[in-house]
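[audit] Reproducing an earlier prediction to check determinism. Same input, same settings, fresh worker. If the tokens differ from the archived copy the diff job will pick it up downstream; this log only records the rerun itself.
[audit] input (395 residues):
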Amino acid sequence: MKKSIIVSLSVILCLCMLLFTGCKPKTPDNDTTAAPDSTAALDAVATPQEEISSEVSTEPSTEKSTEPSTEKKTSSVNNGSQSSAINKKPEKVTEPKVDTSKKLNSYAWNGNGTYKCGKGDGYLVPGMYYIQKTASKCTVSITNGKKDADGKAIGIEDVDVPYNIFVTLKAGYTIKINGGRIIHSSTAVVPGANNSKGLYSEGSYRVGTDIPAGEYLVYSTSGSETALCVAYQNADPFSEDADMRGVEALNPMYFTIRVGDIIEIENGNIMLAPKGAVARPDSNGAYDDTCMYKVGKDINPGKYKFVPDSADAEYAFIVYKNSFYEDSDMVVKENLKAKGTIEITLANGQYVDFYGAKLVPVVEGEEDNKTDDPVTDAPSEEAPPPESESQEQQQ
């Protein structure tokens, strides 16, 4: 499987921007212990789903399981460090040559070629476009009409496009497409849009047009490679204010998207979060690390303790104040190198994600030899409800 461009670009932006908590792996350091099979049942999530219709897609079909993995795996969040498929740092590139003598129709498909954005029959009109892959390999080059001190064009060149994407073109931009076709987004029909099951596979979607706003679960379809889902407001590859946020997950993680967002999902699915609990406790009342839990929905608010899978092993946990992943103070508490039994208090609306341990309710009056939590316990306010569109669909 070819290396995904979106992952490599995440590393670049993580080093450059260092926003929020930035690229913190959940896997405990030096953990070589093989993880045992999960005992929690993801009943609400693991129901087999129908394959999403390809509709007008011309991409080769590659079947992937639509069920989330129930193996014990790490889930991590790279807040503010993700990138869209072609949001790459501009560099010196060769200016593509454009033939503006032929007439173009921005609202019909334009195939392989080089196009300039501007006015006239030989130009694409400014706006947001949908690029659809028509071959197993699709590459895109874009310049913004600017040049450096040496007269070299500034842009991105021969970037692999892993799936259908959206891109905003302004007057003066030039785009070269090989292995795909382009159409103005106002007439684009997105494969798999508004799926009746609330399930969306790899690709790009406009929130409010192709996918309803609301709270979703992001999970991997391979069981071994992480799924990456990002949301952003600006599809211009040269914009510095894309307002990008996202999650990286193997097991199901909550993610809330808003009207006006563009989302991209790679190596996984995003599905509307069920009204019921995502997972259930085992026979002893403990919760395993098979998914993220929402307090007040999947588990009750109150006191809990983390009990490590192995007495001497490190484990990790993070408590979030919501599932937007956009504020610098989104993490209520965390410990990525925890040891021993740690007691925490979880408040309504918070989210807890952990690996290498079980989450066990604390029985009133119970005495336990526990280590002190080194992170200040500061329960957050309940997260704001999802957009109205999602609430209606869930009902």
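[audit] rerun output stored. Observation attached for the diff report: The chain is about 5% helix and 30% strand.
[audit] end
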